[in-house]
Design brief:
By secondary structure, the chain is an all-alpha fold. It has a domain of about 25 residues. The chain is about 25% helix and about 0% strand.
Length: about 60
């Protein structure tokens, strides 16, 4: 219904880490990073990058 609030809000502008910080995490097992963040930021295994050759950091 038009009165219902949106189910999803897409934020296009937010603070991003610098390339040096991202590079520091490259190659680390994703599970280690997620565990260190108390489970925050974990993705379902079915989520994949849209662009071919792209990868998630971790």
């Amino acid at each position: 219904m038009i009165e219902d609030p949106p189910l999803l809000t897409i934020r296009r502008r937010f603070a991003r880490p610098g390339a040096d910080l991202v590079e520091a995490f490259a190659g680390l097992p994703t599970g280690f990073i997620i565990d260190a963040m108390n489970g925050r930021g974990a993705l379902d295994g079915a989520v994949e990058p849209i662009a071919g050759g792209a990868a998630f950091c971790g």
